Amino acid sequence: MKTGVQDYVHHLRLFSRNARLYLIGSFLMGVNFHVFQLLLNLYLKQLGFDEGQIGYVVSSRAIGMTLIAIPAAMLMSRIRLKPLLLTSCVLFAVFSFFIATYQALTLLIGFSILSGMAFSFYRVAAAPFYMRNSTPAERTHLFSFSFGMMLLAGMAGSIGSGKMVMVISGWTGDIILGYQITLYIGIAVALAALIPFFLVRSSKPSEEERRISLSYRQLKERGRFYFKITISNFIIGAGAGLIIPFLNLYFRDRFNLQPDTIGFYYFVVQLSMLAGSLSGPLLVKRFGLVRTVVITQIVSLPFMLILSYTYFLPLAFVAFVLRGGLMNLGIPLVTNLGMEVAQKKEQGLVNALLMVAWTSAWMISAAIGGTLIEEYGYTITMNITVVLYVISTITYYGFFRKAEAKGDGSMGWVLARDNVS
After folding, report:
1. How far lies 201's CA from each of 14, 196, 212, 222, 381, in Å?
2. In terms of pTM, does the model score above 0.85?
3. Per residue in 335-350, pLDDT tens?
4. Which SS3 state, helix, strand or coil, does residue 25 take?
5. What's the half-sphere exposure (Cβ side, CA atoms, 13 Å) at 372?
6. Domains in the chain: boundaries
7. 405 - beta bridge partners?
8. If 330 and its partner were Cys, which of 161, 290, 293, 362 is the partner (CB 3.0–4.6 Å)?
9. What is the CA 207 to chain-centroid distance, rounded?
10. Residue from 359, 343, 346, 342 nearest 76 by CA
11. Which of 195, 194, 205 is nearest to 86 (CA)?
């Protein structure tokens, strides 16, 4: 254990100044993201919206992210990153403010689409930025730590916001106002990300990066690779969108829990996901990127089944925590593999395609998931999710099982890019 910790600390010290600043900005943006993720559904439910309508609002952010992701990647391959980061941070905060303020369904959907577009620039920029500002020596640790920072943000947002709603509503006697003020505080934290993003020293994109274009020729030459790298993400995004946005409502409806208790549950699951993401590089050394993703996803599935059938709260809580930690461990590893096997000039595009695959599937299934839950309940919906997760895992392993080879001695696993394209 000591050796593993020392190894991790050694790699953390290798992070560049730019990478550290981006990680800080990610944390601050992530706090707002997770405050909204936890509270928005509960807030809309309190306003009187049904699950189907909430599903439309949730999927609208994914619509915005899907629409702008590829254009954002193309733009980022041609101009400096910092102005886009600063602009997206401000716009994301503004549109989030409108979502927390207005209560008409059409306005909520419209501003959710716009907030998704603004957030998309920050998400698309992350992986290529880390590739530019890291070396192979610390890269896996950087991707896992980046995901870990989002989870730390989730822990801060979850444990604080649920309790804050109850405290403010206790002061004001108005639960709606409690939700709104808490959402506004989350937005203020996101705006603080302007400071580290302003301090980033961004260089112009390289000549190789500027050569990328999403042309017919590009698709003809690399379309097979793009399909392989995105299809499993699409399938797993479809499964996740059916139920993950509604797990806070699951605890509210099935177990009659209050926002502060649900917030504590989300804090614990984020802690579990953080432990999982930070252990990722250690597992990768033993099993490789691909096999670590496959193993942890398979092991997580029984816990989703337990969630679907149990009405015993302690068992549901344990299953919720373990499922979250195992299933999300592979997310940064999938992105890391995509960046490693992609050509340098197409890294921004591949990251955007990964995001589009996830968000487009999420966009569709979140809208369907709300209706499914409303009509058939949580059990059937969760079982459909499990089936989609199984299909995604099998697909991922089938395409990428030969992407790595066991190295000799201390080399660990070595990428075999020729086996992927």
Report:
1. 17, 10, 23, 32, 46
2. no
3. 778 877 877 777 777 8
4. helix
5. 21
6. 10-199+208-419
7. 414
8. 293
9. 30
10. 346
11. 194
